[in-house]
Amino acid sequence: MYLRFFSKVFSVMAGPRPVVFSGPSGAGKSTLLKMLLKEFDGVFGFSVSHTTRKPRPGEENGKDYHYVSREEMQAGITKGDFIESAEFSGNMYGTSKAAVQAVQAQNLICILDIDMQGVKSIKKTNLNPIYISIQPPSMDVLEKRLRARKTENEESLQKRLQTALVEMEFSKETGQFDVVIINDNLDEAYGKLKAALLQEIQKVKSTTKA
Ligand SMILES: Nc1ncnc2c1ncn2[C@@H]1O[C@H](COP(=O)(O)OP(=O)(O)OP(=O)(O)O)[C@@H](O)[C@H]1O
Ligand SMILES: Nc1nc2c(ncn2[C@@H]2O[C@H](COP(=O)(O)O)[C@@H](O)[C@H]2O)c(=O)[nH]1
Where is this chain's protein located in or outside the cell (predicted)? Predict the structure, then answer.
């Protein structure tokens, strides 16, 4: 009885576990996480990363990313502002401590969308997230999706496809991810994602109700 009470108090104090999304560029991470953020408003919050890449049409500074220069990013890293950072396809990306704290301060499930290097770095911290890998059904489908997205030139597309091969192999390593979801049919993939996160979603809903 007391044990149940204290474990509930402790889990509320500790806050919900963050969720890391990783997987090849073009696998559908942003698509799926946007669906979660929309359906579960007040449950999930997005950790807005910093990047040195230029914004794509429709992307907003402070919402999709914090767009910064290489100098600014490097200065932040040197100051210790980042939990992790990585070079990906010719640009720098990183998760700031402030980005994660901003979400956790609202008692929301913090979603991080990061590459494989980020996953390896986060594993060395005490963030303790649930690791979810989003994978495409095949390289052919991935290439078609990336081309159809029209965000890359031929050079950056080829770089992303090369990196995708490594990310796909990484997801097959035992113990790297808690859940691996093949994003073939979008609705089915989203269903699997929700099922994987159901327990955490219910925890947040029950604490916000109380
Ligand atoms: N199941 C799906 N079926 C068909 N198209 C999809 C599916 N999932 C995502 N897409 C499309 O594939 C493209 C890539 O998806 P998305 O941008 O979400 O990938 P990502 O993993 O977030 O990529 P990045 O890491 O580069 O940000 C988008 O144009 C998206 O609309
Ligand atoms: N290690 C990190 N990787 C990140 C971060 N934010 C995004 N990413 C990853 O970069 C690639 C490319 O993203 P894109 O928006 O340019 O297509 C993708 O795999 C993201 O997951 C971060 O903060 N750290």
Answer: Cytoplasm
- Establish whether this prediction's ipTM goes over 0.95: yes
70 part of the active site: no
Q: Which ligand has the shortest distance to the CA of 64? A: 2
Residues 6+ apart with CB under 8 A from 40: 201
Q: Is the CB of 94 under 6 A from ligand 2?
A: yes
Cβ atoms 107, 16 nearer than 8 A: yes
Domains of the chain: 3-205 (3.40.50.300)
Residues of the chain under the 50 pLDDT cut:
1-3, 5-13
C-alpha triplet 85, 110, 38: angle, nearest 5° = 120
**C-alpha distances in angstroms, 210 versus 88, 107, 170, 205?**
42, 13, 41, 9
pTM: 0.94
